[in-house]
Amino acid sequence: MAILKHLLLVMVIFSFTDLSLSVNVGWWNKCKLEAKVKLVLKTMNENTVAAVVDCIVGLGECDPTGEEIKIHAKDAVCSGRCGRHCTCDQIQYRLVVRKMKKEYSDQWFRLENKFKYTC
Fold first, then answer.
1. Distance of alpha carbon 34 from the chain centroid
2. For the CA atoms of the chain, what is the radius of gyration?
3. Residue 84: which of 28, 15, 18 has the closest Cα?
4. Which of these, 85, 97, 113, 117, is most buried using a 10 Å CB contact count?
5. Tell me, what DSSP letter sits at residue 59?
């Protein structure tokens, strides 16, 4: 039991550090965080998130980042939990979604309303 707790602690520490590892250990898959996802996570603020959501819902112009996110927005809104079977791409989406839900819930609600009848 102590070994399991130690392994869990190590996994948590790795998840909060910027280690560029790509390791498969049994069912646990450590994916490398893509540079563009890092950029999105770092630059998220009220103005940038609102501008990208405006782009996605058709109320504003799209910059290159908005166009890229627009391609994946429906999948991010409509996909359910994948648990241990997440692909690296799904993990990347979930990181952005989690931050959006937590810090920009009003904007997340706008995206859900855009796609809720098409999922």
1. 11
2. 16
3. 28
4. 97
5. S
The DSSP element (H or E) to which 19 belongs, if any, is none
For 24, the token pair is 């498969």
Instruction: Report the SS3 class of residue 25.
Output: strand
Above pLDDT 70, what percent of the chain?
Answer: 76
Contacts 24+ apart (CB under 8 A), 29-32: 29/86, 29/88, 31/88, 31/91, 31/92, 32/88
Q: What type of residue sits at position 48? A: T
Tokens of 119: 């999922």
pLDDT digits 0-9 by tens, 52-87: 999 999 999 999 988 988 998 999 899 888 888 888
3-class DSSP state of 45: coil
